[in-house]
Specification:
The structure is a homodimer. By secondary structure, chain A is an alpha/beta fold. Chain A is built from 14 helices and 22 strands. Chain A has a six-stranded mixed sheet, with helices on both faces.
Chain lengths: 515, 515
C-alpha cells in the first residue's frame, strides 16, 4: 500500500447549484469525483441517481463516496452521508482449489479486521480441477458448482462478520484471486474448453460487476472483481502474487514461483515480465501436484534424519499423533533420506543403509517413516518407491521449468536473481534448505529466498486498499510475456538431468553436502 | 439514416482458437466486435459470458451481434445464432406530457413495423408537469408516477406487438425522448428540484442502462436509452428534434422551434448551436402553453372568416359537431379575427364589426364562434377577451423569444435562416400563414417553413437505426450553448411591441394584408 494513496473511500464536496448554471446534480457529483480522483472517467450507477437530489441537499452537498474501478473507468459504488459512522468494508478472497481464505478489511483505515478459512465445498464434487470441470459440463453441473462455492463464501462471510461484530451489509467491495478454472466456476462461466486442446478460457479479464449478479450477499450495489488470468494454466492467483511481491516495480530481476497444484513462475522486473506455467504435456502430467498439499492436525510437516545415527524425527501439525504426510514434509523427508545416504543419487532406496526401515508393500519397497506403534492410525506410515519416484519427477519438473524460464528464456543465470519469492500456501511451508538439497530449487544464497505466504490473498487485499493496484494488474496483463512450456527433446534432456539428487551436474549445488 | 451506416445488428466472424494463442473466447469476441465497429471500446456484459464457449463452437464461430452504445463504449446487448431468424426489434418512444407514441422498428431492415399512441396515464394524477412533480414529492408519489407510465408503455408495447404478429421478447433496445420532467419520472428519479429555484435536474445525461432496471418488459438484457436534456426547461425531446432535422449538419443557419407546453428553440448550423427555452419568469408564466393542445373528435382545428361577409367557417376533427377549440384552431381564429377587422391591433374585440357575434359572459366580452344550435354541446362555443388576451401574450412571448435568440443572441436577422422547422405535435397543426398574420412567427418566405411532425419520436427512431446518432447527440450536448431567458427591461420592451397585431413595427410583416 503506497502511503500517498487515499484508498477507495473519499469524502467529497459537491459544488452547490446557483441560478445561471444548469448543471444537473449528477454532473456536479461527477465533476467532484473527477476532481477528487484526477480522472476523466467516472461511472455513476443508475441506482445512485433516484434519490440523489434530496440526499445531496440533506447532506449539504457533502458525501462519503465508496469507489472502485473497472477497465473503462472509476466506478461509484455507493454514496453515503458525510457523517456515515458504520465501517465501510471490503472482502478479499483467495479462491483456492482446496482451500478458500477470506479477509474482511476496513476500506477507510485499510486495517484487516478478520480472516476465515474454509474448505472449497466443490471438493465434494471433485478433488481437483479436472474432475470439477468435467462435472461442470454435465446438465446443471456448472450452476451446482457455482452455487456451492458462492453459498459457502456467503455463509463464511456472515460467520466472520458476526465474530467481529460486523455486518455483511457493510461490505461494498469483494476482490478475489484464483486459478483460471476456479475463477470461471466462481463466476458461473463455462470452463470446459480450459481442459480441451487448444486450452482456451472463456474469459481472461473478468470485468468488475455487481456482486449480486453472481449471488454474493453483500451490500446492494456492491461490486466484485476477480483477478484476470493470463491463460488456462496461468491464473489470477499469480497476478495477485506479482503485485503482492512488487515484482513489477523491481529494479533487478526477481522471480516468483507458486508451488500449488501446478508450478507457476514469473520472472522479471519493472522493465519486463516473463511467465510460464507447469502442467504441460505427458512428462509433467500431474507433475508438481502429486506432492500433495492437504495439511491438518496429525499431518507430518517436517522430517529430519540424523546423518550419523539415522535416527528419524517427525513433527506433526498441532503435535497430534502422526496420520500422514503433507507436501512440505515429503520434501523434508526426501532431503533427509538423501543426505543420510538412505537413497542414492537416482532416488532409489539403499537397502543396506535403510536396514529395517525398508520393507515391502505389495512387492514395492517402502520406507517406514513412522512405525505402527507410534502412528495415529495404528498402521505404519510409509513412503513407497512409487511415491518417491513421483516426488523425484515433481522436483525435477520444478527445477527444469525454473531453468527453462530463467536461463533459456530470460537469458539469465540463477545468480542474477535479486529475490526468489516462494508463493502459495504450500510454498510457505517448504523448507528451502530441503528443497535445495534435493535439487528442486537452485542453490542460491539463502537470503535470496523469501516466503510470500498466501500471496493470492495478499494481492486481493492489496486490490482493496491501494487504488493503483487495479491499473498495475491491467498493465501487467498487457506487458507480460507468457511462455507455453515446450516439452521437446531439449526439455526432456534437461529433465533427465534434474531427476538425479540433487542433479547430474553436481557443481550446480556446491552448498549441498557430499554424502 | 445514412446509407453507409450498418445499424446495430451485425453478423460477425470470430477468430478460431489454435494452440499457441491463448486469447480467451471473450477476447476473441471483443476483437471481432472492435474490428467490425472500428472502435477501441466494447463492453460485453457478464450475462453473455456464461455460455459463450459452447455457443461459439456450436455456431462455428459466427454470430449475430445486437449492439448499442453508452457514453463510454459500444455495448454488446445480445449475441444470437448467425441463423437467428426472428426479427430483431427496437422500440422508439415519444414520452409526451399528454400523449405517448411508440414505434416498433426492425433493427436489421430499419423498417417501422407499427405505431401506437396512448394518453400519458400520469394525467390522472396531474394534468401538467407542475402537478405531477408536486405529487412525486409526496411519499410513494415518485414510484407511483413511474409505475403508471412504465406499466402503460409495457401494456401498449404488448398490444402493438400482438397487432403486428411480433413478440416483446424480440425487442432488444428502447429509446425515448421527453422533456426533462417526463424523463426523470420515466426513470423514477427525483424531479422536485426541477421546479424549485435554481431549477436543477438530477440528471442531464441518463446513461444507457438495462431496461429491466426501470421495469420495461422487453428481452432479458435489453437496453434503454433516454435522450439527454440540456437543462430543466430544455429536454431530450428537443435534442431528438435537432438530430431529426439534421440541424447539426446544416451549412446555413436554421431554426427548430418546438411549440409544446413551453416554447423551446434551437438555432444554428454544423458550426454552432444556441438553445433557449420559454417558461422563464412571471411575464411568461404559462405563456405559450395556455393556447391549449388537446385535440380530439369535434374539436375545432381550423377557422376561417370571410373578410368581406365576415362569414365564419370552422372545421372539426373527424368532422363531428363542434365541442371546443384546440391551439391551432385558436391561432387560425385570431388571425381570421384580425384580418377581418373584428379585433384591433391591440387584440381587443371591435364591437361595431363583430356585431351580434359579440356577447357578454359574466361581464366579459366574448366572441361567439359557434352558435348554440350548431354546437355539439348545446352551448355556444365562445372566445372571451380573457382567452384572447392570453393568446396575445402567448404569441408575443413566442415572437419575443424568437427575436431574442435569433437577433440579440445569434446576431442574425430572421431572413438569414435557411430553414425554419416547426416541431412537436402541436406545431404540426399550426398554419404558418395564420401564425405569421398574428405576428407569432416572423414574416418569412413560406417555403422556409417546414413542419417536422413528431420530431421527438423521429429522433428516438433515428437513434435505433443510425449508429452515428448517439455520438451526434453527445456532441450536440457538448457544443450547444444554452441561454437562460433573461426577462429584463429590454425583454419586456420587446414583449410589449410583440403584443400588438401583428407588431408595433408593422414593417416587419410586409406580407400580412392591411385591414
Amino acid at each position: 500500500m503506497s502511503l500517498s494513496d487515499q484508498g477507495y473511500v473519499r469524502t467529497i464536496g459537491i459544488e452547490q447549484p446557483v441560478l445561471g448554471n444548469n448543471l444537473a446534480d449528477s454532473q456536479r457529483l461527477e465533476m467532484a469525483l473527477k476532481k477528487e480522483l484526477d480522472t476523466d472517467q467516472v461511472h455513476i450507477p443508475w441506482a445512485q441517481l433516484a434519490s440523489l437530489p434530496s440526499r445531496l441537499r440533506q447532506w449539504d452537498f457533502q458525501a462519503k463516496a465508496v469507489l472502485f474501478k473497472d477497465r473503462r473507468s472509476w466506478r461509484l459504488t455507493d454514496l453515503l452521508s458525510p457523517g456515515h459512522d458504520r465501517p465501510v468494508l471490503g472482502a478479499a478472497i483467495d479462491i483456492g482449489t482446496t482451500r478458500i481464505v477470506i479477509q474482511v478489511i476496513n476500506l477507510e483505515t485499510r486495517e484487516i479486521l478478520g480472516e476465515i478459512g474454509l474448505d472449497n465445498p466443490q471438493t465434494a464434487i471433485g478433488p481437483d480441477v479436472l474432475a470439477r470441470i468435467h462435472h461442470s459440463n454435465k446438465p446443471g453441473g456448472l450452476k451446482e458448482l457455482q452455487e456451492l462455492v458462492i453459498a459457502s463464501v456467503n455463509q463464511h462471510l456472515r460467520v466472520l462478520c458476526n465474530e467481529q461484530g460486523l455486518d455483511t451489509n457493510d461490505i461494498f467491495l469483494v476482490t478475489g484471486a484464483g486459478n483460471t478454472a476456479m475463477t470461471h466456476l466462481f463466476l458461473g462461466i463455462e470452463a470446459f474448453e480450459i481442459i480441451k486442446e487448444p486450452y482456451i478460457p472463456c474469459v481472461n479479464i473478468p470485468d468488475t460487476t455487481p456482486a449480486s449478479e453472481i449471488g454474493l450477499d453483500i451490500r446492494k450495489g456492491g461490486l466484485v472483481f476477480l483477478f484476470p488470468n493470463i491463460g488456462s494454466y496461468f491464473g489470477g492467483d499469480l497476478l495477485a502474487g506479482i503485485i503482492y511481491s512488487d515484482l513489477d516495480k523491481k529494479e533487478e530481476p526477481c522471480l516468483v514461483v507458486d508451488v500449488g497444484t501446478n508450478a507457476e513462475i514469473v520472472v522479471g522486473s519493472k522493465d519486463w515480465l516473463i511467465a510460464c506455467a507447469g502442467a504441460a504435456g505427458p512428462a509433467l502430467e500431474g507433475g508438481v501436484s502429486k506432492m500433495g498439499m492437504t495439511a491438518g492436525p496429525g499431518v507430518i510437516d517436517t522430517v529430519s534424519i540424523d546423518p550419523d545415527t539415522r535416527q528419524v524425527e517427525v513433527h506433526t501439525i498441532e503435535e497430534q499423533p502422526p496420520i500422514g504426510i503433507c507436501g512440505s514434509g515429503m520434501i523434508d523427508l526426501a532431503a533427509a533420506l538423501f543426505l543420510s545416504g538412505m537413497i542414492d543419487i537416482r532416488g532409489k532406496f539403499v537397502p543396506e543403509i535403510c536396514k529395517d526401515r525398508l520393507i515391502e508393500q505389495e512387492e514395492i519397497p517402502a520406507f517406514v517413516l513412522v512405525r505402527a506403534e507410534d502412528s495415529g492410525t495404528g498402521e505404519p506410515i510409509c513412503l513407497t518407491q512409487v511415491d518417491l519416484n513421483s516426488l523425484t519427477s515433481s522436483k525435477a519438473a520444478m527445477y527444469t521449468i525454473l531453468e527453462v524460464i530463467v536461463k533459456n528464456t530470460s537469458g539469465l543465470e540463477f545468480e542474477d536473481l535479486a529475490k526468489f519469492y516462494v508463493a502459495g500456501t504450500f510454498g510457505s511451508f517448504i523448507n528451502p534448505e530441503s528443497a535445495i538439497s534435493i535439487g528442486m530449487l537452485p542453490d542460491l544464497d539463502r537470503r535470496v529466498f523469501e516466503v510470500l505466504g498466501n500471496s493470492s490473498l495478499g494481492g486481493a487485499a492489496l486490490m482493496l486498499t491501494d487504488t493503483t493496484a487495479f491499473d498495475r494488474v491491467m498493465a501487467i496483463r498487457e506487458t507480460i510475456t507468457y511462455i507455453e512450456l515446450n516439452v521437446n527433446q531439449e526439455f526432456m534432456n534437461m529433465f533427465s538431468g534434474a531427476k538425479f539428487y540433487p542433479h547430474t551436474d553436481r557443481a550446480r549445488f556446491p552448498s549441498v553436502p557430499e554424502v
